[in-house]
TrEMBL record, chains A, B:
This is tRNA G18 (Ribose-2'-O)-methylase SpoU. Signal peptide: none annotated. One of its GO terms (biological process) is RNA processing. Keywords: Methyltransferase, Transferase. SUPFAM superfamilies: alpha/beta knot, L30e-like. Gene3D superfamilies: 3.40.1280.10.
Length: 267, 267
C-alpha cells in the first residue's frame, strides 16, 4: 500500500474518480466504484472477486480506519486528500470520505459461470429488476445465505452500479454473477444444466416452506408490480410466500431473503 | 367525493400541502402525507385506520385512476390541479401527481394498544431504528404477515413519515402501532402482559426455524450495525438467522420479513 497525498483536485492520477456520477448512470465500463467503510472492508478482503485499482480517502477518515488498510495489497495506490479536494474531484460531497475504484476485468458469461458450479447448487435469477436498491438487496441476501451465483437478465440493472454495491454491503463483490441476454435464454441454459426452476409468485402452487430443496435450484424473481410474466411462470415450479389475505405485497429483496433462507435451511 | 379544480397555487384550502417537506423532517404533528397510487389505494380502503382530510391530484393522472376514487367518502374534498400548479404548491416536482393528507387523530399509546390485543398475538418491536426505509419495510412486512401491532421506542423514526409510508406500500396505515418511551419501558409492558421477548441477533441461541411460536410473541429488532444492546438481549430469548459464516449481514427489514414469515407459518 502506498499512501499518496494529493494537493490538487486536478491531479490526473485520480481521473477515474471524476466520472463517478456518470458511472452511476451508465453502470458499465471497465471500472466500478466502492464507497464507505463496510464495503471497503469487503473490497480489501479475499472474498472480493475483483481487483482494486486505487483508493481515495479523506484525510480526516484515515485515523478511524483501524486495521482496514492492513489487508491492502502492497502496490495499491491509496490517495489521500482534504475533504475539499475530494469534493472537488467528484463534483459533489462525498460524506463517507472513503472511495475506491474496482476493475471488472474479464467476467465469465452465464454459460461459463454455470459450468463452474458444484453438483449441488443454489442460484438466484433476478429478471427485469431495474431498481438498484432491490438488486443490491438481492446480492446482500445471496451473500448472506451462500447462493452459489446470481444470473441477471440484461433487462435487470448492474449489481456493480455504485448504489447497488452500497446496498449489497459488498455482496456484489462476493457472489459470482453474470448479467446478459433474455430471461428465456437464461432459463434454457439453466434447464439444460439440470436446474429446477422455482418461480416466486403470489399465486404460486406450493408454499415456500413445503418445498423440498432440489439438488440444483434456480430461484426466479420478477419486478415488484408486474411480477414474472405468465410464459416464465409456465416453465417453472411456482412457489408462494403465504401472506395475510388483504395485503399481498412483499418487497422483492425481502422475498429473496425469505426464499434463500428457507432453501439454505432445507440443505 | 367533491372534485374541486384549483386555478392558483396560492389557494388557502390546500395549505396543508405546502409544508410537505417540513413534515418530512419533523415527522410529527396532526397530519401526514400519503402519495402514489398504491398507497392511495390502501388509504381509501377500509384497512386504513386513519381519516383522510383531502386529496390533491394532478389533472393528467385522474383518467388513469380507474376505480380508485370510488371508495372515497362522499364528503372528501378532492382538489385537482395542473402539474405546474401542483409543483407550485409543494415547492418541488411531485412526479407521482397523487397526494393526500391524513389525520392522526387520537392515537392509542402502547399500553392501550397492548390491552386491545387478542390472547394469541404477534407484535414487532423495532428499537432505535432511525432509517425511514427500514421502518417502512418493517411496516410492509408486518402488514403482509398479519402482525397484530408494532411497538416502536421513541428513538425509532415515525412510521407516518412520508417516505416510511411510501416504502411500507401503505402498511403504516394498516398495522396498529405506537411509538413512545424507552426500549426498557416497552419491554416491561410486554412482559407484564404475558409476551415472550424474542430478540434477533447474529449470535442468538436458537435458529429461527427451531423456535416454537409462543402464544404471545414480541419480536425485538435493533438497528443495523450496533444491533440490540446487551441489556436488551439479556432479557430476551435470543434467536439467530443462520448465515454463511463470512458474511453475517442482513438488512433489518429483510430480517423482519424472515422472522414474521417464520412465526406466521408456525401458527
Amino acid at each position: 500500500m502506498r499512501l499518496i497525498e494529493l494537493t490538487s483536485s486536478d491531479d490526473p492520477r485520480i481521473d477515474a474518480y471524476r466520472v463517478i456520477k456518470e458511472r452511476d448512470l451508465v453502470g458499465r465500463g471497465g471500472r466500478f466504484v466502492v464507497e464507505g467503510k463496510t464495503v471497503l472492508d469487503v473490497a480489501l478482503s479475499p472474498r472480493n472477486r475483483f481487483p482494486l485499482e486505487s483508493l481515495l480517502l479523506a484525510e480526516s477518515r484515515i485515523e478511524g480506519l483501524g486495521g482496514l488498510l492492513e489487508g491492502a495489497p502492497e502496490d495499491l495506490p491509496v490517495y489521500t486528500a482534504s475533504q475539499a479536494i475530494l469534493d472537488g474531484i467528484t463534483g459533489f460531497h462525498i460524506h463517507r470520505g472513503l472511495l475506491g475504484i474496482g476493475l471488472r476485468g474479464e467476467m465469465p458469461g452465464a454459460e461459463q459461470l454455470i459450468a463452474g458450479l458444484p453438483a449441488e447448487a443454489l442460484v438466484v435469477v433476478p429478471l427485469g429488476i431495474t431498481n438498484h436498491d432491490n438488486v443490491g438487496g438481492i446480492m446482500r441476501n445471496a451473500a448472506a445465505f451462500g447462493a452459489d451465483a446470481a444470473l441477471f437478465d440484461f433487462a435487470s440493472c448492474d449489481p456493480l452500479y455504485r448504489k447497488a454495491i452500497r446496498v449489497s454491503v459488498g455482496g456484489s463483490l462476493i457472489v459470482p454473477f453474470a448479467r446478459e441476454g433474455s430471461a428465456e435464454a437464461l432459463l434454457d441454459l439453466l434447464v439444460a444444466n439440470g436446474f429446477e426452476l422455482i418461480a416466486l409468485s403470489p399465486a404460486g402452487k406450493t408454499p415456500i416452506t413445503a418445498l423440498p430443496r432440489p439438488r440444483r435450484a434456480a430461484v426466479l424473481l420478477g419486478a415488484e408490480g408486474p411480477g414474472l410474466p405468465p410464459h416464465i411462470l409456465a416453465r417453472a415450479h411456482t412457489v408462494r410466500i403465504p401472506m395475510k389475505g388483504d395485503f399481498d405485497s412483499l418487497n422483492v429483496a425481502t422475498t429473496s431473503g425469505i426464499v434463500l433462507h428457507s432453501l439454505a435451511d432445507a440443505r
